[in-house]
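#struct-help
A.M.: can someone run this one for me? Single chain, 93 residues.
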Amino acid sequence: MAVSYKQRADLVARNIAGETIVVPIRGKLVDLQKIFALNGSAEHLWKQLESACTMEQLCSGLAEEFDVDRSQAETDVREFVEALLEAGLVEGN
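D.P.: on it. Structure tokens below:
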């Protein structure tokens, strides 16, 4: 069974000056070490991660939305998800 990834519940995402910023909230504190600024393709992936998605679903969505080569989409999605996991912004099951 493929692993699904989803945004953690303790996050806030806001559009500031045309850029989406993701901020982790732990209790009543903001973790400034893990703020993420998202570009257009990352923002698209982030929105997909509002509900559980597999790498396959994320790659398909990115390749279709941005008309990129499938192998490039796979590389980009893998790097993005790994960065989100390392920062603790998504969780996998």
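A.M.: thanks! The chain has a mean pLDDT of 91.
D.P.: also worth noting: DSSP finds three helices and seven strands in the chain.
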